Amino acid sequence: MTDKRDLLILGGGLVGMTLALAAAKKGLSSHLLDRADPANLTAEGFDGRASAISTASWRLFRHVGLEKVLEPHGCDIAAIAVLDQMKRGRLDFRPEPHEGTLGRMFANRQLRLALHQAAAEEPLIEWHAPVEVVARERGEFGVSATLGDGRVLEAALMVGAEGRGSPSREEAGFKMASWDYSHRAMIAGLDHSKPHENVAWEIFYPDGPFALLPMLDGPDGQYRSALVWTVDEKDAAGVLKLSDRAFLAEVYKRMGDLLGELTLNSARSSYPLSFQHTAKIVEHRLALVGDSAHGMHPIAGQGLNLGLRDVGALVEVLDEAGRLGLDLGDAQVLAKYEKWRALDGLMVMGATDSLTRLFGIPGKTASAVRRLGMAGIQRSGWLKRFFMDEARGISGDLPELLKA
User: Fold this and answer.
1) How do residues 80-97 score in pLDDT, each as one tens digit?
2) Which among 8, 243, 322 is positioned nearest to 146, based on CA atoms?
3) pLDDT tens-digit map of 203-224
4) Which of 205, 359, 361, 391 is the most exposed place for a label (fewest CB within 10 A)?
5) DSSP 8-state assignment for residue 304
6) Which domains does the chain have, with CATH numbers?
7) How does pLDDT run across 239-256, given as a tens digit for each residue?
8) Contact of 203 with 254, CB cutoff 8 Å
9) Measured distance CA(94)–CA(78) in Å, rounded
10) Interatomic CA distance for residues 382 and 214, integer angstroms
11) Which SS3 state, helix, strand or coil, does residue 118 take?
């Protein structure tokens, strides 16, 4: 006797886990598989990264029941300030008081803890981790995954949520547009003597953005921010080897006295930056979500939010198919999901890549032209509104789970 479920979700990261929970809220069951040990994923110090959760993504978390457990751990983003190398011509995005925030910052560890707890308590989710998938099959009437211990898990639809190196995507033969930026993102947690006032700073240098993201105060009331500093690949090893004092001196050079005196509150880490996008995100009984479909530069902090919009759209399409009595793996059902997500994915990927290249042009003339453009946006009410709506994730054709 087999335990055949609606979904076979390969990848239990932030997007895959949210998908399983959102599907369960619509009565859809899933096998959720991940090769990593959950205890390692939630261990202190495993992942020092933080994520900006947009307004729309927060609505999704609220709809799947995570609001109460997550809210105490999120730091509001009240405004975003954009600078070109600390030169004059600052661009500010700040919603009106009645519009709420531009999003919330969460440590990735806190997101994982909340998702893992909710998944463990949800009877419609059969969570398998850590496991190794040795074979994937997509047949006429269903899909299956064979595990290293010989177990075979079956479902109606396979979902690839393994991230950038997705084996599901590779086995299916999806064609990818991809390139390496030859840069790395340096990640660290900072304590500082001045309050951040809930402002996220994005300072652009030719090597890439230098971001300071507001976090909740530390246990002793220390002001805290997350640092995401893009450096050239050839310089990355040297930056990581710097003493804490030398590292902070380099950081201070790039941000001046914005946040006052600095100390590190975490270990430093880094990861390579690349672009990868597949226009086609469905195949026979297979759908891709998150970084399996589109991995982008963190320049605008939209990678996770784009994946969560995939989740909302896929769940809505599958819920509608289920209520109509359709096969969840039906080609027309999956084509609807692909059509819905195609334009949004392409626009966000194109915008982040264009910003990366635009601000990467060196020289005084290029900087002057950029700052002239920023000044124009600063004076334009409708352009600022457009960019704020994009940052909040509330523009375009939103799935119901991402609406208020």
Assistant:
1) 998 888 887 778 888 888
2) 8
3) 988 888 899 999 999 999 999 9
4) 361
5) H
6) 5-75+105-178+274-359 (3.50.50.60)
7) 999 999 999 999 999 999
8) yes
9) 6
10) 26
11) helix
